[in-house]
């Protein structure tokens, strides 16, 4: 399926069919003084409060994607020299052939510099972006060929990012099959001290096909939640889900020049998880990748139904503010906190759903979970919860790759979020050496107007 993206200021059309890009829809929207107000996820996560402590300065985030365009004013000075693995495309890693990679960079490191500071911000505006461009595998003759092209480029891309010094590796693309080379590259990157985040995919309301590299051991699989704290309908679910982040009605820098887009999907959620890691790592530069991830898990907003994790949001919704306020003991430097690496080493047939390693604390103090699509522990939105009406042509910006024709398993049951209340304590261990975080903070009120629903997306390019 192909669509075109109309960008404001220049109205540039771009082809938008690509294998495995996990950002589902984008609409061009004019930049104006209220751009920051439209970025509800920054208010909900209390970004400006966090920026008083950390902006992600000193942390490089690799964006393995479609390229990153450094001409966007909100990304000026944020984009490093990277590497181009897209031998099928003209230009280099600074040429974004879909606009998707630039959008991920905007969500992570946008500075809001456009129009004197009225542009779009990323969650970690002090971080830098290492662009690593992959080929356009969505135009392959069939799914198997697309998977081959994707994985053959992804493996060296991951190795390059780790060798280039990226602390965080963001992969908002996917294929329906993994590969031994990618698995080895992930292990290599972990050994080099990097953290890897990948979107779990956007066919949760369709085939819910397991996607890679999110399901690869050692990669943190990220799901998307909406303003109501529930898993979005499109966000895939299963044992590959490790955590969740906002991924609905997102506004961020994208495309080229003064591009601004409205998007949704697990791509966006992955970018925010990566940015969260950058914020924490910048504050604690001597921590290892394992310690940063462990603190993210220990301060996460866990599920609400009494278990350690569920298939909808994993161990919960990422909360970098709590991690910055009172992270507790980061635990062992050399022990990966999620169970999938150990399970893979033991030739486990499927990703484990057991608790992550949290050091010495008791598992009885952990989370709430299975079959819950929501979590009230990240933020509570007060008043009218409505999406902002964003001006611009509604487009399908990217398309998720082919799904299987088999019927998906039943989605985890929805639960309504708890009513408004104080910002709660983290769901993971709170007894020594994992102290309770600071006092509750009042959640922000919503800035916005009437809601505008997202369209239903069409089938993938091979479906």
UniProtKB/TrEMBL annotation:
The keyword Secreted does not apply. InterPro entries: Peptidase_S8/S53_dom (IPR000209), Peptidase_S8/S53_dom_sf (IPR036852), Peptidase_S8_Asp-AS (IPR023827), Peptidase_S8_subtilisin-like (IPR050131), Peptidase_S8_subtilisin-rel (IPR015500), T7SS_pept_S8A_mycosin (IPR023834). GO terms for cellular component: plasma membrane. Belongs to the peptidase S8 family. This is Secreted serine protease. Gene3D superfamilies: Peptidase S8/S53 domain (3.40.50.200). Coiled coil: none annotated. The chain crosses the membrane at residues 377-400. It comes from Streptomyces lincolnensis. PANTHER family: CEREVISIN-RELATED, PEPTIDASE S8. It is a single-pass membrane protein. The active site is at 65 (charge relay system), 100 (charge relay system), 267 (charge relay system).
């Amino acid at each position: 399926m192909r669509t075109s993206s109309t960008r404001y200021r220049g109205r540039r059309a771009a082809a938008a069919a690509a294998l495995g890009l996990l950002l589902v829809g984008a609409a061009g929207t004019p930049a104006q003084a209220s751009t920051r107000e439209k970025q509800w996820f920054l208010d909900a996560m209390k970004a400006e409060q966090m920026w008083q402590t950390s902006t992600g300065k000193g942390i490089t985030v690799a964006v393995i994607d479609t390229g990153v365009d450094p001409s966007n004013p909100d990304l000026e000075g944020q984009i490093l020299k990277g590497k181009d693995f897209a031998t099928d495309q003209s230009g280099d890693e600074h040429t974004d052939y879909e606009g998707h990679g630039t959008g991920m960079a905007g969500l992570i490191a946008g500075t809001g510099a456009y129009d004197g500071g009225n542009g779009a911000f990323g969650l970690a505006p002090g971080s830098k972006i290492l662009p690593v461009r992959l080929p356009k595998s969505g135009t392959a003759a069939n799914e198997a060929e697309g998977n081959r092209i994707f994985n053959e480029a992804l493996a060296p891309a991951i190795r390059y990012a780790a060798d280039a010094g990226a602390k965080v590796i963001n992969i908002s693309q996917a294929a329906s099959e993994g590969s031994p080379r990618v698995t080895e590259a992930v292990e290599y990157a972990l050994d080099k001290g990097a953290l890897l985040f990948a979107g779990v995919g956007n066919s949760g309301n369709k085939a819910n096909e397991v996607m890679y590299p999110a399901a690869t051991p050692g990669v943190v699989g990220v799901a998307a939640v909406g303003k109501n704290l529930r898993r979005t309908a499109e966000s895939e679910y299963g044992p590959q889900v490790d955590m969740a982040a906002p991924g609905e009605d997102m506004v961020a820098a994208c495309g080229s020049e003064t591009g601004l887009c409205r998007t949704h999907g697990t791509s966006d959620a992955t970018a925010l998880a990566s940015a969260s890691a950058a914020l924490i790592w910048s504050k604690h530069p001597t921590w290892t990748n394992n310690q940063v991830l462990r603190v993210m898990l220990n301060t996460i907003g866990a599920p609400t139904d009494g278990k350690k994790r569920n298939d909808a949001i994993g161990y919960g919704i990422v909360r970098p503010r709590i991690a910055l306020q009172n992270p507790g003991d980061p635990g062992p430097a050399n022990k990966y906190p999620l169970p999938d690496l150990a399970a893979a080493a033991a030739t486990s047939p499927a990703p484990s759903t057991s608790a992550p390693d949290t050091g010495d604390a008791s598992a009885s103090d952990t989370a709430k979970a299975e079959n819950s699509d929501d979590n009230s522990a990240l933020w509570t939105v007060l008043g009218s919860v409505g999406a902002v009406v964003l001006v611009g042509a509604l487009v399908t910006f990217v398309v998720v790759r082919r799904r299987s024709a088999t019927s998906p398993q039943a989605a985890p049951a929805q639960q309504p979020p708890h009513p408004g209340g104080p910002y709660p304590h983290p769901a993971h261990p709170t007894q020594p050496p994992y102290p309770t975080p600071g006092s509750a903070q009042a959640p922000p009120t919503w800035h916005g107007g009437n809601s505008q629903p997202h369209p239903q997306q069409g089938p993938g390019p091979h479906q």
